[in-house]
Amino acid sequence: MTTTLQTPHATDHLDVLESHALFILREVVAECERPVLLFSGGKDSAVLLHLAAKAFAPQQLPFPVLHIDTGQNFDEVLDFRDRAVEVAGARLIVAKVQDTIDQGKVADPGLLGSRNRLQTVTLLDAINDNKFDAAFGGARRDEDKARAKERILSFRDAFGQWDPRQQRPELWQLYQGKVNPGEHVRAFPLSDWTELDVWQYIGREKMDLPSIYFAHERDVISRDGMWLAVGAFVEPNPDEEVVRKMVRFRTVGDANCTGAVISNANTLDAIIEEVAIANVSERGATRGDDKFSETAMEDRKREGYF
To answer: Contact 121/105 with Cβ under 8 angstroms?
Structure first.
């Protein structure tokens, strides 16, 4: 009688990335008393939520999900947010920038002005009000130069500020997770992932995403080198022509500062192929709140941004 040995599943780079992310999620929960997961509704936070559900299955998530709502979101993203949190069985906390404006803590930029930078105050208030000592975020090092400077565990002082010179070493994937009184930690389990890794993982896991990531026809205008979607937060100026294009969004942000890219990629395979040959990061190409200053992201992170 011949015995056939089954070949075990070969470990690929996505398995390694997933395993490391699960380890970080579990380590932070073990070290901290009141963690929270930051959720924008974008692809990276969707992967982070998916990983968190895996990390603590079959139990429910041992922490809530926090969305900082600027009030200028794409409708498709808000619909996805509610759907994803419900599927994960998580508790959703929504902190609104409009409330921060109403309290007089930040100035109202007006109906069409960007609220993106105002999120920082709303985020810090939500962390302080709920006494969160750890916040998971979906940031990746390949997004921006400032992201690349940050450790996987990024400690913030009592004012929520980040000092890139005061970071703990993380040699050999050994992490010091103790949070000192008054501090909190931002944890980034996707730090070592790339945009391509994220899309390949989404494909492998057959994950749901907001429909705006896939190519579709949309009315857009060309402004500041970007294709902006015409809608409630983007109105064409008299000298701007509204055109209908086949586009998709590589990143999710406020509707008035997030540009689309011309694309016919309406399937996961097509998006993966498109991302594989891209030579500009998704934020660098399509986020107006980042592209006009070399230090825009770093300045915002010093103030307490994600």
So the answer is: yes
Q: Which residues of the chain does CATH 3.40.50.620 include?
A: 13-196+296-303
- Look at the block and give the residue holding tokens 């929504």: 94
Q: Which residues, including other chains, have CB under 8 Å from residue 25's CB and lie 6 or more apart?
A: 51, 52, 55, 56, 136, 187, 189
Do the beta carbons of residue 68 and residue 135 sit within 8 Å?
A: no
What residues are paired with 135 via a beta bridge? 36, 186
Angle at 113 (CA atoms; ends 112, 115), nearest 5 degrees: 120
97 within 8 A of 122, measured Cβ to Cβ: yes
Fold classification of 13-196+296-303 is Rossmann fold (3.40.50)
The pLDDT, as a whole number, for residue 6 is: 45
Q: Give the residue from 84, 189, 207 showing the smallest Cα distance to 140.
A: 189
Q: How many CA atoms lie within 13 A of 43 on its CB side?
A: 25
Task: Compute the distance between CA of residue 149 and CA of residue 191 in angstroms, rounded to an integer.
Answer: 11
Output Rg (C-alpha) for the chain, integer angstroms: 20
The number of C-alpha atoms within 13 Å of 207 and in the hemisphere containing its C-beta is 27
Within 8 A by CB and 6+ apart from 305, the residues are: 117, 119, 120, 123, 297
pTM above 0.85, yes or no: yes
CB atoms within 10 A of CB 2: 3
Better-scored residue on pLDDT, 247 or 146: 247
Residue 286 above 90 pLDDT?
no
The secondary structure element, H or E, covering residue 17 is helix 13-31
Compute how many other C-beta atoms are within 10 angstroms of the C-beta atom of residue 96.
15
Which amino acid is it at 103? Q
